[in-house]
Amino acid sequence: MQAADLYARRRTVNGIYLALSMAATATGLAILFLILWTLLRNGIPALGSDLFTETTPPPGSRGGIANAIYGSIVMTAVATLVGTPVGVLTATYLAEFGAGSRIAPVIRFVNDILLSAPSIIIGLFVYELMVLRMGHFSAWAGSVALAIIVVPVVVRTSEDMLRLVPASLREAATALGTPQWKVIVMVIYRAAIQGMLTGVMLAVARIGGETAPLLFTALNNQFWSTNMNGPMANLPFVIFQFAMSPYADWQVLAWGGAMLITIAILLLNILARLLANWSNRSP
Amino acid sequence: MASILTVPSRRLDRQRLQDAAFRGTTQLFALGVLVLLGGIVMALAVGAVPAFRRFGWAFLTSDAWNPVTEQFGGLPAIYGTLVTSLIAMLIGIPLAFGIAVFLTELCPPALRRPIGTLIELLAAIPSIIYGIWGLFVLAPVLQLTVQPMLIDILGDLPVIGALFSGPPLGLGVLTAGIILGFMVLPFIAAVVRDVFSTVPAMLRESAYGIGATTAEVVRHIVLPYTRAGVIGGIMLGLGRALGETMAVTFVIGNAHRIKASLLAPGTTISATLANEFTEAVGTLYTSSLIALGFILFVITFIVLAAAKLMLLRLEQEAAK
Questions:
Q1: Taking CB atoms and an 8 Å limit, are B26 and A93 in contact across chains?
Q2: pTM of the full predicted structure?
Q3: Could you tell me if B2 and B147 lie in one domain?
Q4: Do A35 and B37 touch (CB under 8 A)?
């Protein structure tokens, strides 16, 4: 009788435990769908040709966020173009030459910390480094701040991918008398390219929505500007400014921008994952 | 004969040079990561010097924040950073833990990938989106339903009551903590799920084999085995929560005050920086803000380094 009681109690405890863990998962999924639903409900009314063709308006008049979309794309592109080679070369050192060296684990450790370091600190750093010296905010400074965020992401994913390349490929190429740099550039990179591309896409998705590092670097610009040496509008900053404002038409534009940016980032993430799955399956 | 021997050897020399150059280039960039960290620490430290010189240790303990009289103290921002992160952990850890248990022990294998991916997508949503959602959706809901309830039920209790006193504003420390909890949840869940799956199947199956329930397997087998990794994952989430900027800036209310009540507006280091840095005039004001940034960097560095070391230890144990 006692054994049966114990058994029943253990089953009850287990049932509660499992129900709670299911509830937690349901909560996580609910948050995701609630956010997406809110974005779509508030963002779709903002859609229209104005959104993509007009620049940010003063309060009370019609306009769009074309200058902010342009700024975000340009700064993200420059940051990715600068950050990716730096990240790939660092990852190459860690994966190919780092074995046995004492500095490689330290670099890996520091890189992992930079990966999670607060992005607003990066903004402060670039402010001190560039904005203060140049005397004004600029899109270059914004791009540099974003590039600093790209590097650790690319280092991490590229190193993992380079390590996945089978040693037999390296050995076969080396046995043919190929110099090491050619082995790496022409054999190893080619074998790992899909995985590395995934990493770059994740990095783009990461910086696409970053706001904090741009606050003190690129700032914002009410007008259409292609001058990299001056302040430039960008989506996150415009969303921040417009959402916090009391003007209804600014808030609508903020929701429109928020929806665009989230859809773009989630699509990039999903594409990156598909690419990763596909490259894992193909060899 | 001589020409046959010398040509390849000259070519070999050239190749050796190229190899050395390539290796050197990659090493240079790799060292750049260390230079970057050093540069960040240096730049913040140098920028913070005027504030630390003027206020000394009192900067850490003073709650004055007056740009007009140029009196600055970091305590309210440091306090807000720690309290919001604590609330975030109280919300994020149980949720993340439940999700990890669900994904590793309960979920049908066919659903494991899709649900795992959806949870990971939560981490991809930018901070600013959480902020705008928190401001327009979560804060009104909290103000109208949750907060009045908390005040009614807990407000009259002796000690806890002080935490839930005052009017339900919607915006404030509690709201910021809840949003942060939602934001760190996917990071913790991902790490915990990964370390849970390092438990050897044999241990798990042995426990099930002698009749343990899932709850017992998790408590007595999985958790003890992965303790270091779980703590590492939690610290990683904590590091995120401490430095989160935009989401907090939207919902915390930005007040340089320390109130006992969690419903009152407050501020964090990152929110202070986001709100005030571009508008700060005068060396002392700017320097005080940079000093706050320096403090934030030191705190997050310690937390993240500890997290990393714990995860590394687990990795080494798993490799044995």
A1: yes
A2: 0.91
A3: no
A4: no
